[in-house]
User: Fold these one by one.
Assistant:
Number 1:
Amino acid sequence: MNIRLEYFRSVYKAEQMPPERYPEIVVCGRSNVGKSSLLNTISGGKVIAKVSSTPGKTESVNYFSTTGKFYLVDLPGFGYAQRDKATVATWGRLIDNYFRASGHIVEALHLIDSRHTGMESDLRLEEYFRGLGIPSYIVLTKSDKLSQSERSAAEKAIKINYPDVKVFQSYQFFSSKNSEGKDELIKEIMGKVK
Ligand SMILES: Nc1nc2c(ncn2[C@@H]2O[C@H](COP(=O)(O)OP(=O)(O)OP(=O)(O)O)[C@@H](O)[C@H]2O)c(=O)[nH]1
Ligand SMILES: [Mg+2]
């Protein structure tokens, strides 16, 4: 199963947000975590989102549209080099405005590198979402890089670092390399935009 995605629009100012009232699923996470790769994977390997070689450069909110009348939104990564200090504060006014003003976000896919599950900036992002009442779904990326014992360690660490995960969230291992978790993620997305 794939989700047919087409690049729709990049937004640099809040006024440029599309007026169409469709539900939005946002893809966010630290720089280099695999956001663009995930979008390419769920759209069936068609390169629709640019996989970056220079992380931390994009400052736009990128909308991808689907035939199913919802948007998938790719955000620039945070936590790269000196921008690590206050996550959302340094992530930029546009992103903060986007989260506050959209009114159509049905879920944030929060991508966390499965090898680095305790990053401070990720913990803060979850706090930010709780504050805004935005539901999040943690996706543990690059799972193809984990050994069996690292996988168990990642699961344990997520439960410790995100104790609310059972109540408020569910999480999923994902790999753009071998497509682990792809079907489950598409099912999750389709269930949210119905
Ligand atoms: N092994 C492996 N590598 C991956 C996976 N997903 C992404 N990568 C690699 O990680 C690097 C970053 O991937 P991107 O998809 O550009 O990450 P991003 O989160 O969009 O990065 P920014 O837009 O800069 O924040 C690339 O070299 C990808 O090939 C994965 O599931 N497995
Ligand atoms: Mg990207």
Number 2:
Amino acid sequence: MSDGRSPRILATGGRGQLGHHLDEHSRSRLGGGAVAVGRDELDLTDPASIASALDRHAPEVVINAAAYTDVDGAEADEAAAHAVNAEGVESLAVACRDRGIRLIHLSTDYVFSGEVPGGGDPATAPALEPHDPTEPATAYGRTKLAGEQAALSVYPETTIVRTAWVYTGPVRHGQGLRGSDFVDTMVRLERERETLTVVDDQWGSPTYTASLADRLLGLVGGEARGEFDARGLTLHLAGGGRATWCDLARAVFTWIGADPERVRPCTTEEFPRPAPRPAFSVLSDASWRAVGLVPMEGWRQDLARAIAHEGWVAQRERGDLRGPGS
Ligand SMILES: NC(=O)c1ccc[n+]([C@@H]2O[C@H](COP(=O)([O-])OP(=O)(O)OC[C@H]3O[C@@H](n4cnc5c(N)ncnc54)[C@H](OP(=O)(O)O)[C@@H]3O)[C@@H](O)[C@H]2O)c1
């Protein structure tokens, strides 16, 4: 795959936010199309559908963006999450290995315990590296870690890319994406409430899906040109810098022209969830840089791009702000 040509890419989870953006960005980034397939065409829990999708599209690279991503749902039904995130990933890895297809598999910050390393200050504690201990505190994290291990066990050349706090923002509705994400939710709540409280003691790496897709395609393109070889590596790829959810919410308010002081900080204890959220999951980009890859920009720059997305701006100028949550 190092002849400089754009490789044929198949993205799984094609109706999800990353799958959608891989499809969209591959046209501009590689000049070729990634085919993004939804669960209806490639179901990770069905090895026959994996085989037929791979044989039909004959990709050289698979980017696995499909996952059971409902963190609270996984806590209630870990078996369902495990079937997709662990067993399904193993089936995909076997199918890719047997066909000589390069596999890039997406994973998550939830493979870490969420504790601040050394119990230090989360504002300054060292960001997490791939070699730091993985001790997931949630069912979702356990199933994603099991998926990483299964893929590497049956197909050691798989590249694992862990990311975190992924959002698309309000343009997602115009893009036909279902559900919502944190940034999109904050834009909606700004219209609905005078003030809101947002957790200020969980630290992470906000990641704009469009940039994530762009950097993943950079990995595929660079390998095709023979610039580096990331096979078998576990890498971290997320927005630069660090933030609390409250920081992110206030930045959203600022970018849409609202008063950020309307967002009030609260603690995790004041906002309990079925699955415990990590207090600290800031990802370091050192592993990504070490390969020779371009890391993501600071999260504030990327958030500005998400809010300034022309599709969303046009929607706002038309006064058409309704999303599924409205
Ligand atoms: N979102 C985040 O904050 C975040 C953070 C860290 C890591 N990640 C990881 O990043 C990757 C992409 O996440 P995302 O945000 O794009 O998630 P997403 O928007 O929830 O998309 C996931 C997609 O996977 C599909 N899927 C679920 N079960 C499937 C199955 N059995 N077979 C095939 N497809 C299936 C879903 O299909 P349906 O549409 O039919 O349900 C959905 O379209 C995942 O590996 C996720 O774990 C995400």
